[in-house]
Amino acid sequence: MRLRMGMVGGGLDAMAGELHRRAAALDSRVEFVAGALSSTPERSHTAAKAWGLARGYGTWREMLEAEQKLPAAERIEFVTVATPNHLHVPVSAAFAVSGFHVACDKPIGISLEEARSVCRVVEKSGIVFMLTHNYTGYPMVKQARHMIAGGELGDLLKVVVDYPQGWLLQPIEKQGHKGAEWRTDPLKSGAAGCLADIGSHAQHMMHTVTGLEIEELCADFGHLHGRKVDDDISILLRFRGGARGMLSASQVMAGEEGGPNFRIYGARGALEWKQLEPESLVFRQPGQPVRTLRRGEPYLCDATKRASRLPPGHPEGYYEAFGNLYRNFADAIIARRKGVRVEEDFPTAVDGARTMAFIETALESNAAGGRWTKVKDHKH
Amino acid sequence: MRLRMGMVGGGLDAMAGELHRRAAALDSRVEFVAGALSSTPERSHTAAKAWGLARGYGTWREMLEAEQKLPAAERIEFVTVATPNHLHVPVSAAFAVSGFHVACDKPIGISLEEARSVCRVVEKSGIVFMLTHNYTGYPMVKQARHMIAGGELGDLLKVVVDYPQGWLLQPIEKQGHKGAEWRTDPLKSGAAGCLADIGSHAQHMMHTVTGLEIEELCADFGHLHGRKVDDDISILLRFRGGARGMLSASQVMAGEEGGPNFRIYGARGALEWKQLEPESLVFRQPGQPVRTLRRGEPYLCDATKRASRLPPGHPEGYYEAFGNLYRNFADAIIARRKGVRVEEDFPTAVDGARTMAFIETALESNAAGGRWTKVKDHKH
Amino acid sequence: MRLRMGMVGGGLDAMAGELHRRAAALDSRVEFVAGALSSTPERSHTAAKAWGLARGYGTWREMLEAEQKLPAAERIEFVTVATPNHLHVPVSAAFAVSGFHVACDKPIGISLEEARSVCRVVEKSGIVFMLTHNYTGYPMVKQARHMIAGGELGDLLKVVVDYPQGWLLQPIEKQGHKGAEWRTDPLKSGAAGCLADIGSHAQHMMHTVTGLEIEELCADFGHLHGRKVDDDISILLRFRGGARGMLSASQVMAGEEGGPNFRIYGARGALEWKQLEPESLVFRQPGQPVRTLRRGEPYLCDATKRASRLPPGHPEGYYEAFGNLYRNFADAIIARRKGVRVEEDFPTAVDGARTMAFIETALESNAAGGRWTKVKDHKH
Amino acid sequence: MRLRMGMVGGGLDAMAGELHRRAAALDSRVEFVAGALSSTPERSHTAAKAWGLARGYGTWREMLEAEQKLPAAERIEFVTVATPNHLHVPVSAAFAVSGFHVACDKPIGISLEEARSVCRVVEKSGIVFMLTHNYTGYPMVKQARHMIAGGELGDLLKVVVDYPQGWLLQPIEKQGHKGAEWRTDPLKSGAAGCLADIGSHAQHMMHTVTGLEIEELCADFGHLHGRKVDDDISILLRFRGGARGMLSASQVMAGEEGGPNFRIYGARGALEWKQLEPESLVFRQPGQPVRTLRRGEPYLCDATKRASRLPPGHPEGYYEAFGNLYRNFADAIIARRKGVRVEEDFPTAVDGARTMAFIETALESNAAGGRWTKVKDHKH
Lengths: 380, 380, 380, 380
Description:
Chain A has 12 helices and 15 strands.
């Protein structure tokens, strides 16, 4: 039985919509039936037709209204929000209060206050909310999380996360590149640029894998071409409990394809993972041979095994990682129908709020010239 | 508009069927509607139900008969043959003569004579026939083919292809492993074991990328645990035109995940590719920095670009490569409907015959103690 | 004709002395004849005997006095200072004012004031002074320096240097490890621990390769086991001209062997180098295949070629890099004899002062809780 | 106390002499005092002067005669033979019968009969004879040997050794390249080209690490540019006891720097090593994380530790590996003086004879069109 999916946005920036569409479809558990896919009714209808959707809408409000009136057996069960950042919360909240489950692209919104409001709506409405920090869907990331939670590294001492990209090295936002346009426009992306776009992935990865909470941070940002938002970020971190960290991300690093990549050091061992070699997790222990754990092998933890579709020797990649989010999201929705709450092995609204607190604090630190700043409370 | 797909086999060996199902679905151009999925009617029906197929059949003959009687707008348009090897030709040929297009798992059959008969049926019936040597679907393999065809390596001198696996190191065929059972049973796999199973991939890769035709070969096989078929092969090659080669494959190499991997040397340069790092193609030229070409980049050839779904930094893998075969297969079917023949950028029945000639020659060479043996003519 | 070499220190910490001894001997241009090798006369004489030196002395003062009295044709021409840090300047300065050339281990001393005094002595005495930041002796580091100086990266935007080690993860200084003892004792190493020991290498590497001068920095240090000096450092950098950087080093990263490693990003390209794979330099340019330059190849710059002893395919390593410093040092000494000053392709006293300014500033920044701090002027 | 070393040859082909000179000097246990370094008296004297030797001779016969007459405390104790292959045996044997120890470049000679004669002379004279297959001096090669001898791989099944080079892709022997000239001239190199030059390294590596003896082989050679000797070899191997192998080497593989590289598969595990990454040994076991053993670590065997000069994080390379041969050779000579015979952890005359049997058999197999041929007995 398939879940009926709708999407808001995704037609403007071809890539994001396409990613969600394919990721959701990967395990044949989702049927994509309705959408309000672009910023004008005309383009929305064109996009819906191009994708062969059963129901194309001109605007997301129209879609929300119409879907609500459909019989339960026809209407969408969840909506994917793939708009520019400034619309994440308005759309997510509207669908959530109407009882639709929500898969929202990252970051959750453009302010911590917005994020908290989503948390409240989610809690009150009882819907399932997923934030698509897709990189944490990789099997070997789950293995790292498992090993750290199990104490295999001992107390954590230092965490290094980096997300290097190069696609904004030239001012392509002035040359008609839609994705670059809104990402460098504070009205659409919020006050944060690279920080929100991929720095958020790096922070979420760091938290997911280590469980550490940032206590204070010191941020230093750069931007080229007179951009109004950052395109390169360097942040020092102090975690609760005493560990330290470095988080960096950039969209102006010549020739870099992307991350996130992490190295995590503890009192007894260390783990290293790179998104471009996602099937390997390197485990170092003092005085021991370096161990490379590989996806698909029998020694991995259950969550990692469940996140794997192919045996070793058959490389999995980005889509499978993204699909793992949708797979677990679908499980949670189906359980919720039955009144059951299962463990949600995907990023949640609370994760989104934590990330917005990080973003706002980093913006504040950088604006103050790189002052150490306590991270805001994301819970209240 | 989606193509309706049926499948024969694929339920016995969970992996092969699953691979075809997902690969075919990857671009949402195929709808999987019917199947005779296993070797007994009971298990076939169970499998069809498990996969939610519209029409489950007890046997492939039943399926063929029933589908033919359906209206054109309902019946399957192509069948995927995912049975053990000995059934490839009977099933493929029966569907082909009835006008169904065929996607057949490799190798094409269990004898060169069988393979030739398929070629004749394909030619006569006018259907589209695809042999799923999926590894040649990788984008960077297409790039290697393009560069060699374009003369960037100069005259070829030496070709090295290797496909190392380790999953048959223990006699798991005696412990209930279905895939191992039929692959080590000459009645089902044919006289060749590893040679047919993955050696065929290595040979097909070698031919696809270089265009070279083997003139004669010298084969030396091993087998463990009293197996009746080979599980480790080493073959020296002499190509028409003077180039030389080494082809090896094994299913008893401890800890190896899989290939195929190749290194190709010419008078002016060399290319290296490894299946476990499929997004990179290494290009060496004397006196030049080593160049690593990466999937998704603008400098790649058109066939490579068409075979790519994601920008750089978003790893693609096995499914995407397999899906590229089905995508091009679908294009060919749709063109064929319109009476047009497009370039078939996927393995064909002729490729299958070439591989069977290779397999039979290698078996003969090994049986003669490793004697150099002329490769049989695969065309007549 | 060989240069006669003396050494002070090097017997206490077996490794440093051995490194200098072998590096200096590598090209057979140096003859090691005299030494005051340890902190007590007894151990000094024992060490001198063990190494078969012509003249062993009990203390460095004794050595200085005695060598001065020898005929010019017998006495040492240069001294290598391989003591703990606090003795670097007293020994270096004493030999320098007496006209001996000096090869001093890094860092140059334990304060900027000390470093400046060495610069003055060097300038006044006319001797050749080399600071043994040996990692900049690697051929491919010189190649990076050449390419950046030649503008191949365009304007520099971001510099990332990291030097990860793990040997001080356990408190081995309390278990009799001599090298760990003095490195964690502020009386011997100065106020900086990891910062002075390997952070200095990272900073020197960064400056040598890019030519950038740090304008201000923000430092955050950690230390385990109640150590009085840092054992883990994270530093954000702002360079004159607008580039930004991250510099990190650690001696408590489980299982890490060592660096330094760098990634340097400019407006047109990027370079990456790792000390554990020293023969490769990775050059990325947008829209181009990744180029890996390899030691020994004809396309490299002259300084890189001169720094190479073996053709490609014959790995060179740490000793060769270290030996390159001594080779160029020997050239400079021989030229100086003839009254000629040649380009000094090795770290100088001025480099040492720059590094001490960096160290003092970083200590100050960290002590102030991680405040951005202007780097002190190392010249006056 | 240093051993006095002489050299015959090494001036013609600058590289070989230089390699021996540096490798022998690496541990300061050898003093290079005399030589007959080239093929004419004039060039020999010039070379001896250039290297600052105490005693330069015009010919090796002159050198042998003169050194014999010197007092024991002055005359050379061993001679390094670095001539083209055809002179290896005449020179080695002459010095050996006169009581000088011999370090001879590989291969031991140009025929099995020659090799056997050397074995007899060595046995009779009681001298220490070392054949400089330097690649087996790498620490991690010794570790592989240790693990296999200790049964960590179980029974061996398949061995793959490859030595790819590209320096003879162009006919540089016609353009004045001395090293290429004699290596492609059967009068100087013997009937084997690449086979003798680097194929011998590959075979020696294979035997040293595995202990396996080849029972029969099947060889297929290529050669470009009308060369009279092979420049590319592919050989299938059957070992006593049932294991199989593939050995290949080439000097015409575009852009390849060199090997040898090996992969060794057993019933319980596998080892992989590459000469260009000599500090790592990869150990695969079914169902286990891949283990990468690193030089310098505490878990390595004694012979590996003894072969290491630097701690982890300080790359060692080619010279250190070569130096390990000379170090153990020196130990053996010093022990022999005292009438003691120690384990000789370096290639011996018997190894040389085994390799010549391999070479002659491979030549014969290839000449017969690639016929499986029993390997000759190297002992009698």
